[in-house]
Amino acid sequence: MNKYPSFGILIIDDEPAWLKGLSLTLKSSAGVTNTFMCQDGREAMSIIDRGGIGLVLLDLTMPHLPGEELLKQIGERHPEITTIIVSGLNQLDTAVRCMKLGAYDYFIKTDEEDRIVGGVLRAVRMLEMRREYQEMSDHLVSGTLSHPEAFAGIITRDHAMQAVFAYIEAVAGSPQPLMITGESGVGKELLAKAVHQLGARRGKLVTVNVAGLDDAVFSDTLFGHVRGAFTGADGVRNGMVEEAANGTLFLDEIGDLAIPSQVKLLRLLQEGEYFPLGSDHPKRLSARIVVATHQDLAAKEAAGTFRRDLYYRLRTHFIEVPPLRKRKDDLRFLMEHFLEEAARVLGREMPTLPPELMPLLMTYPFPGNVRELKSMVYDAVSLHKGGVLSVNHFRRAIGQAAHDPEKTGVHPRENPFAHFESLPTFTQAAELLIDEALSRANGNQTVAARLLTISQPSLWKRIKRGHR
Predict the structure, then answer these.
(1) What whole-number percentage of the chain has pLDDT above 90?
(2) Radius of gyration of the chain from Cα atoms?
(3) What is the pLDDT of residue 139?
(4) Cβ pair 136, 298 in contact under 8 A
(5) Half-sphere exposure (CA, 13 Å, Cβ side) for 202?
(6) CB-based contacts of 342: which residues, under 8 Å, 6+ apart?
(7) Which CATH superfamily is domain 8-134 in?
(8) Average pLDDT over residues 3-17
(9) Are 139 and 170 in contact (CB under 8 A)?
(10) What pLDDT, on the 0 to 100 scale, is given for residue 7?
């Protein structure tokens, strides 16, 4: 079983009962299992010098070596280690001295256990974020992928996508939530799989699409139930959180989650525990949470339909996947991949690409992204008889999409100048059209001329005359 946290926590106190009691409390209340105990302050530095310790819980009143002296030594020799004082001394001047010596926090042994545990968890999260930031910075500066095989299922040569891969490698080992945003069809689930694989988690990747789940179904799906929790609950049912133990829980379409369910998810993330329906005994969260959405969650948060605290908790790590229309250089690689895959799956002869197909596809915005391209290719290959692939199928698919207001967002008969305060001149309108056509064609004049339904020489003459 993986220990938590990834670094060791050293508890230093000359009272064996206190050492054992605090260790058990941290384990039962917060899932902290990576603890070490030391009863003699003189042995503490040799334990720390061996490495692996990130947090020290230190008592002040010990024989042989005073706690304040040990605190000073830790600060001088290992400034990267965080120290929390847990002492029987309730003295303000002592607490002030310790904070000046570098203590992160100061607690009295008579404090409530929840307060001490909460302080330890805050320190653990701070150290985790510090380490994650350093690892992320080192990784992004290097600019190279350590495990490109994790992204083998994603066909791309795009620099923006390569940056996404590098970021995923940097944060894959973090226990904090990760949010993946992007339009439908860009491959968010493939990236979630890469996160799980790179995190080297021993548990499973469990995927739950939360769209359309009411609060009762959401609670039962995630948290499970005990026997007799409700009518028809004849046995125990493990929830998806438990199924994903020591693995990754991927919640897709998180933007559709209802407010009551958002509250439950927030508590799961904040407290790190949950209750199966009908149970009074909490269970610990040990899965990494990854969420995805095609919606604008910032806008939903501003509108009050998505909780602000949950939004910022979920986007501790954040990825925005660029749409296909912003990485057109990937089109040829994707086409070749899907053609080969479709021919193999459908048992057809590998088609030859017609020369006019790629220029045609380069002008199309692909509102359905990679998923839409894959569907087009599979449909075309299924009708393929041999030789050169017919371009007519793609023309029909693009033509249908172009006349679909739901996909383009524009009514086919809407006048593009209807909302202009002042109308452009004919010359200005022509310049704008040429600029837009060249932009959509990535500078290819032949393709741009086809978009404008004029000849390429005519377009060239207009550009030469300076009508741009």
Answers:
(1) 53
(2) 30
(3) 64
(4) no
(5) 5
(6) 348, 377, 378, 381, 382
(7) Response regulator (3.40.50.2300)
(8) 91
(9) yes
(10) 93
Domain 423-468: give its CATH code.
1.10.10
Closest of 124, 239, 137 to residue 176, by C-alpha: 124
Contact 290, 180 (CB under 8 A): yes
465: Cα within 13 Å, side-chain hemisphere: 11
Q: How confident is the model at residue 185 (pLDDT cuts 50, 70, 90)?
A: very high
Total residues found in the chain within this entry? 468
Average pLDDT, the chain: 87
Q: Where are the CATH 3.40.50.2300 domain residues in the chain?
A: 8-134
pTM exceeding 0.70? no
- Is 103 in contact with 68 (CB distance < 8 Å)? no
pLDDT value at position 466?
64
Segment 301-315 shows an average pLDDT of 92
Structural tokens at position 113: 């256990």
Residue 367: asked if its preceding bond is cis (omega within 30°), the reply is no
Q: How far is it between the farthest Cα atoms of the chain? A: 94
What are the DSSP calls for 139-154, one per residue?
HHHH---S-GGGGTTS
Contact 363, 391 (CB under 8 A): no
| Domain covering 324-414, topology | Helicase, Ruva Protein; domain 3 (1.10.8)
Reported as a pLDDT band with limits 50, 70 and 90, residue 142 is: low
Separation CA 58–CA 87 (nearest Å)? 7
Residue 403 pLDDT more than 50? Answer: no
Q: Where are the beta strands (DSSP E) in 59-104?
A: 82-87
Backbone phi, psi, residue 58, to 5° = -125, 130
Contact 170, 136 (CB under 8 A): yes
Across 69-77, average pLDDT: 94
First to last CA, the chain: 66
